[in-house]
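Appendix B, record 7
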Amino acid sequence: MSPESSTHLKSLTILPTSFSSKLSSEPVAKAEVPPQMLLISQVIRPRAEMRVGPGTQYELLDATLDRGADAIVLAQHGVWLKILPVISGATGWVHRQALSRPRLNVQPFSLSLQRLPTIQVVHDTNLVWDFASSKQRHVMIPRGAMFRQLRLNGKGVLVWLPETNSVMWLSRKDVL
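Structure tokens (predicted):
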């Protein structure tokens, strides 16, 4: 077995010539994510219980996080945050009162990209936003193209492009 390769994500948007509907050919297992790409939070209560969905009606996961544990914030639904614990474990939902206010990472962040959620384009898409400049770019992304989600906000999803090791924003209406 070969050791995990590592690389640095580019804070630019370099559009590939084509988009893949598979992620099995990801070139790296670990990457150093530049500042300002991830939302990070920390457990501020003695422990945080994780749930499978955003609400008390959802089942508890078998994992809890201790005070001081760092987590990547992937999404928000009301008072619930979908998080990915930095050290290990699966994604889950935690009430925002158990976590510090999410903030953008200010330092480069080492992360196993395979742990990030996978998203899929639900219809042919021809418009994206450049990460660095927020300018619109025209491109043809076919239905079924798959990416790894870095961050989600009200209107967009920041995704990693394995083919060019860069990032771009997609509209939330274009992905599942």
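Remarks on this record: The chain has a mean pLDDT of 86. The chain has two domains: 6-36+111-174, 39-104.
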